[in-house]
């Protein structure tokens, strides 16, 4: 049966035993992981600009003098020599960029908790962006309600009880066993202020401030503790910031809380829910579900799912959880979602919890447009703009090229020099080019020509670098060198293996997409005819996609053997997704070769990381193979999802959550081929259902329902005027000219 009344939420019958069981809240900039303990509660805190160290020029000036020799060695097949020279002359100085760090922890201790807690419930209400904890101790009922407000830029913690003086608590800050704090001070008689340095030369300073607002009871401070006694309810307000944004972050936080402390809690809650629902409430997904399963705790449902049960309700929740996480970790004015969104408890996190731009940061934003969260895309655009200046320096110093470039990572300071001396990934100068395609995608969905006119200049700069970087090979083709196919290794016929290469297939697919986007953009806004011709001429000389001896898409210009056939990266299918040069209809042979590529990868153990499995869902959806798309949705939840539904690389990386949500949307709607196709990869277990609010390229919003796999009702809302072609089972093909602001309904 289909239920349309049950709200989407994660819930658990006990506190979190570890970080991967805690529940996240966030407002884009400020976040917390909530453990939900009874006598002792912990909120692990993050602020998105708490990064170690300041900006640096890490560009290696020895790169350009040795570039010709590196290219020569690669083209001669002398890979080890090329890689040794590149490792010395191209690595960043020093080789690592800056890393993300936690803000700290807020620790709460409650009195009157000598007895065991009963009737315990811990939940994350996705509909309203609020986390709640409720339980009973003896005759006293306790409720905690927590949220991170975007309009008020603070975390609110409401603690209430049905007993007149039932609340007695102690609150204090912690940061790595109090070692990474400079100062903890009392603030008046109702607050605490903690501050310190993020560390490193030129690094930011940080501050976090806590204030208690009580309606009854007594509030006081002793040492580094804030105490509340004899209250029936209390609201704890927390604000934080760094000198990345504020000259005096402690003063900023205190002013914020002074103002908020005069606002009734219900008004704070109302403002938060109203703001949050303007984004979250745009999309609804209903699939056939079992009411009995919906009544079970989320971790129990996940465990049953792993054992083979069907649970479409859990899949719908997972989809909406992905949208929730994007809202919570990427809002206008914040930094983009990093490898962990904003939620990180380590001072030395895996891969530095940076912006990894050879797939992961891009995957974070795959659901932004189609899942109707375009505003959440803006922090990525802001970062791209900040990358232009350092990227010009990297292009000039390392390669003698114009335009701007970036490698496979960047950080809070928009660093564009290579990260690490990790040969399979570091020396790959296509990062900025891939990112710029997100600007083009935003235009394709919005049709906003004012945005395009601004974004075009950025895309043009990324294209200019590539025009200068491409070299002519012996056959007169324009190729990239040095480069890599992230992050794979190939084997020469001689038996020598390596990673640095001339002409990775993904390079040409990205270049083809970016040059094409620049040409179309320049035509739309009416400029740069000569530059368009230059790009068109270069496109004609790029190597075309090749089908290899196994019937697969070649990963490199030559049909090399892979050292790891089940590699987690499947970069050479970029043109299938997120690109659109490979399609079942227009390029059937390449689509079939893409299918073979996927089958070989999976047969050899591919998809073993969460984000890789998420990418595979999108691939199968584009190939319109509903069975394999659904099998990989299942595999993502069965093997790569933690108890709190975070994606597990392992360890936790948020990209799989975002890629998984995008994949589910891609199974329901596709719009990359100049038409809107409904239910292109609908699995049998989703034979009935409905979705509201998905967006399509061209400026359309779609609501539609289906029964027995056939569309029964479709509503198209046009945000711009223009022709629309709609297809789907039961619809056949419908074409009409829509007017901006108008809605068109089709009923079977």
UniProtKB/TrEMBL annotation:
Keyword Cytoplasm in annotation: no
Pfam families xref list: Glyco_hyd_65N_2 (PF14498), Glyco_hydro_95_C (PF21307), Glyco_hydro_95_cat (PF22124)
Domain Alpha fucosidase A-like C-terminal: 670-730
Keyword annotations: Hydrolase
GO molecular function: hydrolase activity
Residue ranges occupied by any Glycosyl hydrolase family 95 N-terminal domain in the UniProt entry: 10-245
Signal peptide bounds: none
Keyword Hydrolase on entry: yes
Every Glycosyl hydrolase family 95 catalytic domain range: 265-668
Protein name in UniProt: Glycoside hydrolase family 95 protein
High-level lineage: Bacteria, Bacillati, Bacillota, Bacilli, Bacillales
């Amino acid at each position: 049966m289909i239920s349309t009344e049950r709200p989407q939420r994660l819930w658990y019958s006990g506190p979190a035993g570890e970080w991967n069981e805690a529940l996240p809240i966030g407002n884009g900039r400020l976040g917390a992981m909530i453990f939900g303990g009874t006598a002792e509660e912990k909120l692990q805190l993050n602020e998105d600009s708490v990064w170690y160290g300041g900006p640096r020029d890490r560009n290696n000036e020895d790169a350009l003098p040795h570039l010709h020799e590196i290219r020569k060695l690669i083209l001669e097949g002398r890979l080890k020599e090329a890689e040794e020279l590149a490792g010395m002359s191209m690595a960043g100085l020093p080789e690592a960029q800056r890393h993300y760090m936690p803000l700290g922890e807020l620790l709460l201790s409650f009195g009157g908790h000598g007895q065991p807690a009963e009737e315990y419930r811990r939940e994350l209400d996705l509909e309203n962006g609020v986390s709640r904890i409720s339980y009973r101790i003896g005759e006293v009922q306790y409720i905690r309600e927590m949220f991170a407000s975007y309009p008020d830029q603070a975390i609110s913690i409401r603690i209430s009880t049905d007993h007149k003086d039932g609340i007695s608590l102690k609150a204090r800050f912690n940061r790595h066993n109090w070692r990474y704090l400079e100062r903890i001070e009392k603030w008046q008689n109702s607050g605490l202020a903690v501050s310190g340095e993020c560390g490193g030369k030129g690094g930011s300073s940080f501050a976090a401030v806590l204030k208690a607002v009580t309606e009854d009871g007594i509030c006081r401070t002793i040492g580094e503790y804030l105490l509340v006694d004899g209250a029936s309810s209390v609201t704890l307000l927390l604000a934080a910031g760094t000198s990345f944004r504020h000259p005096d972050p402690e003063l900023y936080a205190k002013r914020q809380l002074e103002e908020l402390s005069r606002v009734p809690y219900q008004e704070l809650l109302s403002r938060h829910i109203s703001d949050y629902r303007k984004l979250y409430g745009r999309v609804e997904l209903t699939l056939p579900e079992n009411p009995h399963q919906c009544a079970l705790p989320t971790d129990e449902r996940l465990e049953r799912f792993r054992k083979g049960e069907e649970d479409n309700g859990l899949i719908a929740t997972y989809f909406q959880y992905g949208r929730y996480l994007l809202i919570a970790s990427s809002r206008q004015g914040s930094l983009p979602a990093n490898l962990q969104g904003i939620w990180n408890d380590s001072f030395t996190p895996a891969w530095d919890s940076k912006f990894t731009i050879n797939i992961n940061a891009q995957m974070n934003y795959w659901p932004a447009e189609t899942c109707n969260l375009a505003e959440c895309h803006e922090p990525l655009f802001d970062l791209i703009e900040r990358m232009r200046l350092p990227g010009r320096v990297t292009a000039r110093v390392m390669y003698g090229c114009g335009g701007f470039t970036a490698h496979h990572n960047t950080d809070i300071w928009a660093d564009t020099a290579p990260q690490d001396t990790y040969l399979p990934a570091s020396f790959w100068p296509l990062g900025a080019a891939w990112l710029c395609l997100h600007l083009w995608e935003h235009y394709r969905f919005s049709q906003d020509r004012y945005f395009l006119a601004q974004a075009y200049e950025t895309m043009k700069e990324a294209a200019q670098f590539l025009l200068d970087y491409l070299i002519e090979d012996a056959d007169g083709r324009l190729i990239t060198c040095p480069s890599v196919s992230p992050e794979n290794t190939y084997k020469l016929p001689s038996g020598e293996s390596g990673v640095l290469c001339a002409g990775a297939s993904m390079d040409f697919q990205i270049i083809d997409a970016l040059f094409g986007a620049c040409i179309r953009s320049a035509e739309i806004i009416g400029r740069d005819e000569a530059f368009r011709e230059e790009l068109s001429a270069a496109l004609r000389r790029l190597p075309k996609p090749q089908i290899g001896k196994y019937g697969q898409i070649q990963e490199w210009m030559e049909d090399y053997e892979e050292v790891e056939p089940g590699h987690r990266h499947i970069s050479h299918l970029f043109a299938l997704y997120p690109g659109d040069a490979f399609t079942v209809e227009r390029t059937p042979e390449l689509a079939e070769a893409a299918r073979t590529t996927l089958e070989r990868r999976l047969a050899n153990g591919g998809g073993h990381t969460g984000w890789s499995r998420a990418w595979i869902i999108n691939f199968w959806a584009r190939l319109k193979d509903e069975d394999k798309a659904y099998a990989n949705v299942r595999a993502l939840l069965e093997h790569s999802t933690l108890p709190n539904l975070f994606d597990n690389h392992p360890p936790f990386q948020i990209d799989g959550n975002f890629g998984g949500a995008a994949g589910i949307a891609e199974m329901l709607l596709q719009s990359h081929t100049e038409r809107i196709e409904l239910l292109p990869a609908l699995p049998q277990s989703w034979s009935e259902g409905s979705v509201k609010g998905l967006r399509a390229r061209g400026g359309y919003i779609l609501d539609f329902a289906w029964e027995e796999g056939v569309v029964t009702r479709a509503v198209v809302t046009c945000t711009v005027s223009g022709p629309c072609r709609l297809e789907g089972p039961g619809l056949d093909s419908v074409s009409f000219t829509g007017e901006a602001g108008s809605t068109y309904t089709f009923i079977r």
